[in-house]
Amino acid sequence: MRGIVKRFPGVVANDHVDLKICRGEVLAILGENGAGKTTLMNVLYGLYLPDEGEIHIKGRKVLHRSPRDAIENGVGMVHQHFTLVDDLTVAENIVLGAEKFKVFYDLEKLAKEIDEFMKTIGLYVDPLKKAYELSAGEKQKVEILKALYRRVEVLILDEPTSVLSPIEVRELFKTIRNLKSRGISVVFISHKLDEVMEIADRIVVMRAGKVVGELAGHEATKQLLATLMIGSRAVNIEEKFGKHVRPAGKLLEVVDLWVKGDRGEDSLKAVNLVVRKGEIVGVAGVAGSGQRELAEAIYGLRPAWRGRILLEGKDITRSPTAERIKMGVSLIPEDRLRYGVAAELPVYENIYLEKVHLEGRKSLLDRIGLRVLDKKGMVDYAKKVVEKFSVKTPSVFTNAGKLSGGNIQRLIVGRELERKPLLVIAGEPTAGLDIAATNFVRKMIVEMSEAGAGVLLISSDLQEVLELSDKVVILCNGEVMGVFRPGELSMEEVGLMMSCAKRMSKEEVERAWGT
């Protein structure tokens, strides 16, 4: 790629960028949210036409007017936001758009073919599962398999580990090394320094739309990469967040909770859980262990067929979501684009969405169900949130779907935390965020707990869970394997629990919740 320029209204996303990708290497592109990483790869993949510059593949100048052109030239891309068709099976999604796809075919035969394909790649998801039944981590795997099925020579992975557990990250890295040994080039877009340093042969750092550094993977250090990424602000890249408030009385109590999954199976089985005021309870486990269903059940998006959910002693098991919002329950969903924002609505409306539930009825029109909204007040409030949470957007009138993934996450976090909730359910709150934004969000979560809110932190980043939480609960196959304070168990013991190989006794779990 030579001299690539891509402009949007008021923004130069790529400013005369030169980039080379060598055969059989892992090239990491590192940078803050909004640095231009994804835009540059979207140009290579044919989603954007460059305003200036050229693309050459194997010495031949090409013009990618669409992803189909890119795929024909051996370039595939796995996006940060999932593009699967919910009502199709895993097998159907993988072949969708490929030459072999037909309107009528033998699904059982196709599933067997895809099953064999997945075994050769080293990534596996049940080929007969529907996409809507998958966890975020499973969806990520299917997106990777979908690209590899097209026999690409260059595979672009945009924040591929943002929703994967540590075990799944190791599996992904094993796959990447396998692809590299076959001569496939992998472009690894990320903000996670440890992962980049582990997997990359070469690292390119972008800032404000430009390449500001390039170095070999073995030459990299965290401090050097952080300084290149965020300049003089790179003062403390591993900020620790200590709390100075002891948890108080019970805020949330989950008792013997059973919840069905999308296919009618038991996704949560006899789950007991306690979150106290001022306490952060972390939920860890491999993707698909029931984390999403737990969050949805507490927020009112998924019914419980057995058990109770209590908020400050009040039974909210059957309460609608709107009522839970009024009571102070807030959710940061793990799938930010699908559940976190209305992509076609402007930023200011997305930020104000839940405050509508908190306002009293002010007029006769309100009382008959017609809400009169103060647009100026909405815009002013949104501007305050955008500034406080550093959401990078041309204006608050820009459609939320046009923001980068990291800035959509900032918008959601800002919206949910700014209304000072009583209970925060934080699902993957720092997924896809750069170093500075990750530290900012973590600090905000800790400050919320210090102000007396309870936080249920659900994260695939085990280190994040261990660093922020007062207590940690391990889920595996929908069951509680253990409850402990960070530092009480070794990483080996935690790993065994996450893989269902070890389980605390009922008495040990009850003692842990009681302390």
From TrEMBL:
The UniProt entry, under SMART domains, shows: AAA
What membrane topology is given? Peripheral membrane protein
Q: Does the keyword Cell division apply?
A: no
Q: Which domain of life is it from?
A: Archaea
PANTHER family in alphabetical order: CARBOHYDRATE TRANSPORT ATP-BINDING PROTEIN MG119-RELATED, GALACTOFURANOSE TRANSPORTER ATP-BINDING PROTEIN YTFR
Keywords (A to Z) from UniProt: ATP-binding, Cell membrane, Membrane, Nucleotide-binding, Repeat, Translocase, Transport
Q: What is its main location?
A: membrane
Q: Which residues form the ABC transporter domain?
A: 1-233, 252-502
The UniProt record lists the keyword Membrane: yes
This entry's Gene Ontology molecular function terms read: ATP binding; ATP hydrolysis activity
- Alphabetical list of InterPro entries matching this protein: AAA+_ATPase, ABC_carbohydrate_import_ATPase, ABC_transporter-like_ATP-bd, ABC_transporter-like_CS, P-loop_NTPase
Protein name stated in the entry: ABC transporter related protein
Origin organism is Thermogladius calderae (strain DSM 22663 / VKM B-2946 / 1633)
Q: Which cellular component, as a GO term, is one annotated location?
A: plasma membrane
